[in-house]
Specification:
The chain is an alpha+beta fold. It has two domains: 140 residues, Fructose-1,6-Bisphosphatase, subunit A, domain 1 (Fructose-1,6-Bisphosphatase, Chain A, domain 1, 2-Layer Sandwich); 117 residues, D-Maltodextrin-Binding Protein, domain 2 (3-Layer(aba) Sandwich). The protein is 35% helix and 24% strand. It has a seven-stranded mixed β-sheet, with helices on both faces. Strands 11-10-12-14-13 form a five-stranded mixed β-sheet, sandwiched between helices. It has a two-stranded antiparallel ribbon with strand order 1-2. Strand 6 and strand 7 form a beta hairpin. The radius of gyration is 18 Å and the shape is globular. The N and C termini lie far apart (57 Å). The structure holds D-MYO-inositol-1-phosphate (IPD) and calcium ion (3 copies). One calcium ion binds next to strand 4. One calcium ion (CA) binds next to loops. One of its GO terms (biological process) is inositol metabolic process. This is Inositol-1-monophosphatase. It comes from Pseudolycoriella hygida. GO terms for molecular function: inositol monophosphate 1-phosphatase activity; metal ion binding. It catalyses: a myo-inositol phosphate + H2O = myo-inositol + phosphate.
């Protein structure tokens, strides 16, 4: 069958080559003073000409070699369902807001999924020249050097990361603020990078000990989830259940113990009868 003939080395090399080319485009855009910026669903939801350009470069490049492969991608393939077919999950520019503001935390995120199992994960920050790569069963790497998660077992000794900007949305505000309040109170520090893919990569490299993300999309998480697992870390759903590629609500952590503590803290915060207005 089609799947039996898939050579993962070839897929990986092609993806790496295309992601590098896409990175040149992102870098060019980042350095350009005037970009065309539009709002999608609100003033906090920005998109530039580069988001679509990068996505097209990646999808066209892959399709040339693999005309039968499927895509789930933010700008042009957002409503696809995941099947057992070979599928690329792509966020062309993660952290568009940073990209627009000239904050160098922006990345291209590409995952390759076969029979609903992530085989390849690539997160590339071309501005800071950080290429994070992982293949199932083969470890995770930053610019070719193997990386590993930290040993943190408790929140008390952990740097926690949370996409605080999601609280900008009325329907999500209380939930995110309560969780941030609860977890910040017992962690070593909190960071919010505005780029989910890179935040996950920072867990994989052992800089961030745990990261909780909810209300984003499959393309924000898929590549980074493999990076973390291949770096020895844990990826669960927010309630501690198994991570689901198409339901990207996650607790990621260096260790099992730490992920359990975060899951527990979320539960406690959600039970708070608080409204912040
Ligand atoms: C954004 C990033 C960011 C998160 C935003 C997302 P985008 O994705 O994942 O970390 O805080 O909510 O929209 O739109 O820049 O690809
Ligand atoms: Ca977006
Ligand atoms: Ca994104
Ligand atoms: Ca994006």
């Amino acid at each position: 069958s089609d799947e039996d003939s898939i050579n993962l080395d070839d897929c990986y090399n092609l993806a790496l080559d295309l992601v590098r080319k896409a990175g040149d485009l992102v870098k060019e855009g980042f350095e350009k003073l005037s970009k065309t910026v539009e709002c999608k669903s609100g003033s906090w939801d920005l998109v530039t000409e580069y988001d679509a350009k990068v996505e097209n470069l990646l999808i066209n490049g892959i399709t040339c070699s693999y005309p039968g492969h499927c895509f789930i991608a933010e700008e042009t393939k957002a409503d696809e369902v995941l099947t057992d077919a070979p599928t690329w999950i792509i966020d062309p520019v993660d952290g568009t807001n940073n990209f627009v503001h000239g904050i160098p935390f922006t990345a291209i995120s590409v995952a390759f999924v076969l029979k609903k199992e992530i085989q390849i994960g690539i997160v590339y920050n071309p501005i800071m020249n950080e290429m994070y790569t992982a293949r199932l069963g083969q470890g995770a790497f930053l610019n070719g050097k193997q990386i590993a998660v930290s040993n943190a077992k408790t929140l008390d000794e952990s740097m926690y990361c949370h996409e605080i900007s999601l609280a900008r949305r009325d329907a999500l505000r209380d939930k995110h603020m309560k969780r941030v309040y609860k977890i910040t109170a017992c962690s070593q520090g909190i960071r919010s990078f505005g780029c989910a893919a890179l935040s996950l990569a920072y867990v994989a490299r052992g800089s961030i000990d745990c990261y909780h993300l909810e209300d984003l999309y499959p393309w924000d998480v898929a590549a980074g989830a493999l990076l973390i697992r291949e770096a020895g870390g844990k990826v669960f759903k927010s309630d501690g259940g198994p991570y689901d590629i198409m339901d990207p609500q996650v607790v990621c952590a260096a260790t099992d113990e730490l992920s359990r503590e975060v899951v527990e803290a979320i539960k406690v915060a959600d039970e708070w009868n608080l409204r912040m207005e």
